[in-house]
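Second attempt. The first submission of ATP-dependent RNA helicase HelY had a stray character pasted in from the spreadsheet, which I only caught after the job came back as garbage. Lesson logged: always re-copy from the clean sequence file. Corrected sequence (920 aa) follows.
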Amino acid sequence: MSYLDEFTAGLAFPLDDFQLEGCQAVEEGHGVLVCAPTGAGKTIVGEFAVALALSQGTKCFYTTPIKALSNQKYHDLVAVHGAESVGLLTGDVSINAQAEVVVMTTEVLRNMIYAQSSALDRLTHVVMDEIHYLADRERGAVWEEIILNLDESVNIIGLSATVSNSEEFGDWLATVRGDTRVIVSDHRPVPLDQWMLVGRRIYPLFEPGTDDVNIALENRIERIQSTDTSGEDYREGRGFRARSAQSRGQADGHSGRFGRDARSGPPRQEDKFQPVGRPDVVKVLEGQNMLPAIFFIFSRAGCDGALAQCHRSRLVMTDQEESEEIKRIIDAGVEGIPEEDLEVLRFRQWRSVLSRGFAAHHAGMLPAFRHIVEELFVKGLVRVVFATETLALGINMPARTVVLEKLVKYDGESHVDLTPGQYTQLTGRAGRRGIDTMGNAVVQWSPAMDPRAVAGLASTRTYPLISTFAPGYNMAINLLAMNGFEGSVRLLEKSFAQYQSDGSIVDDVRTIERTERKLSDLRAQLPYDDADVDAVMEYVDLRAELSAEEKAQRRYSMEQRELETTTVLAKLQVGDVIAMPGKKHPILATVVTPASQARDPRPWVTTERGWSGRIDAAGFANPPVVVGRMRLPKNVTHHPRKNTRFVVEAFRRDSFDRPKKMRTQARVRDSKKVVALREALHNHPVHNWKAVEREQAAHLGAKIHRAENDLARLRGKVSEASDTLGRHFERIIDLLTELDYVGVESGEPHVTDEGERLALIHNASDLLVAQCLKRGIWDDLDPAELAGVVSMCAFEPRKTTHGEPSAPTDPMVDAMNGTERVWEQLASDERRHQLPTSPMPEAQFALAMHQWTAGAPLGYCLAAAAESGAELTPGDFVRSVLQVIDLLEQVAKTAYSDDTRRTARRAIDAARRGVVAIGT
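This time the job returned cleanly.
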């Protein structure tokens, strides 16, 4: 009898085929890569590796990408194997670290390998859960570091979401780790139904048994889009806009796309589309037996706003007993947080809405609050969670239904469409194994959404895994210490990044050749001598620079108008009559419900034409204007949509001083740079050519300019691919040799004493930190001052304010200025060695970190951050403090001065208190 037979005999359910195949491969001593959808049960293969190692008297490490997942897996394994056999290491938590099975974050294992820790003795299996994190832009390199550096005797069990290039990834694993079995399953144990919610009606996305979009759904949307009763329509978040082309066609007496039926008499009530609030959507889901549900909303403010909507509604999803149980769990979870901090966190309001069965979940929340929400949801006490997409990548919180309100998210630079991989990851949360027979993915329709595009997302279930691996200073030092120079170069050139770049370089070279020919043909079309060609290209560059600056100025003006509009909307009161920009004439509306919050004000208005709904700042290019007041009875303010007639009649009866015209576009004032560029353009010799000749030359010059940019980009890409990671490593070693972190003896580089300190610093600004310590920039500070200065190398600004960074003491000012001078020198050295520039020190959190370490309350520190230019939620604040503590722990190990090491330890103790110490 094999051990697998014994293992499966103890399970309460039979294994699926792919689970059985994966466990067999583990028992036979192979490396394994298991790719399966979220919720398919791939972790059973990792759990079998744990059990097998324990049965053999060897060790198994179970790695996860985030602390929350590590904590959850630790408790799962303790429940099976007992607390004495399982340990937990997550950087700030250490439990039974010498156990035979240890759950840890990937960074902890990476650090163990570089330190050549004795904990690696007798290690036979490493489970890498969520191994597709290897593609993460910021942390993905850690996964490759482990795979490349782990002793070849250790078997890696990789557990991944379904990726389209699993064979390529598996082939690479086999190349660098030896025999690796790739097991792929597209089967979901709980099938997923795809739906679209249109108003208050829910439709299947697909025709039964096909990949075609549901005809009834398309017909319903066509009826809505062909309906136009007011001459103009308002779409929430889009503002007032002109009627669609087909509506104009109907008004002119043309049948348009929909023919006679689209305009035969007044529209039916069922064809009218009104956006519905979150409480209404919850009621629809409840009526369809689709709860519990997770609403994915791609902003923290959106999640909090949704929770506030539910709080204002009368909807309650819990009975008295459940409500009391929720309050008991909440009170236990916040025990130890000072009352004054709970006041800042608006704890009582948050507790009240949770007791009704609703919750939000996002990274801006206090960790203790997030853990409470997770516990309540898993226990079935919370029925609806409004979450950002980070929940899809984290802990095990499946629901019966996942709702997507939008298919567009902000990626840090712009709003982009969801990828098939992101859609798959989000909807993978739907369907609880052993509880639900079906999961539900519900997309909420909006006028700009094409159901066929949604069907395309829903039908594409895989996405490629692309390596982001590149060596940094800490990695280079550790590789050099472990493998020597030549061994490190060979190791880096075996990385998945190199493996992938070598395969794509041929296509890029072919594209370069085609672009070079195109550029040559374009240049031949300019009938000028070299001097005139140069003048044309200079003129084209000026025009391009002017266009870019004008766009930037327009964008700034729009942002300023939105701020003005936000201020106006936040101040509106019941009965205020406002004029809003319309297509031809301003439209009057009266406020029936004022905004509930100042940050994202959304007052409810009813227009003179009878439209009733919420408006927000995003819908206006210029702010509305208050032109008077209207007396409104309570039934209008309580039931605005049902009582639109009263408002319409009041507008007909009463007269208001309507503006004759309102701007529909934001006014853009030229900046000094725009004025200077425009003057330079007008004074340029080419500008005085005949208009036809000038524009022909400029048009051709613009094409040349674009082709040159394309060519430079492609050459850079090929150069980067050809310029192997090994050569990049060489340039890093050259800089570290200059700075005395690497020495050279008999032509062989080796790590110096300073380099051994750098090897212990795991931070995006690792070399900057090492340089500050070596030069004594951070010496002679008290604990609060040191914590504040160190934050410059740990803080990641997310949202800025108009505040300016400051420091409360002269020694702290000197240390902060010194840190910036060291960075400027380092950045110059990096550019000289053709290396990426280290992140610039960020001073916005320094004052808040100083005050927190000195004992100030939470509210005071959040205000200090805002004064210094950083707008932080409580969750952001806690995470930022923890990042500073993590770096302080490294300073305590690597500082040259004994006093500085002691100060760092005192700073850690002072900062780890209150909301930072609880629930992290």
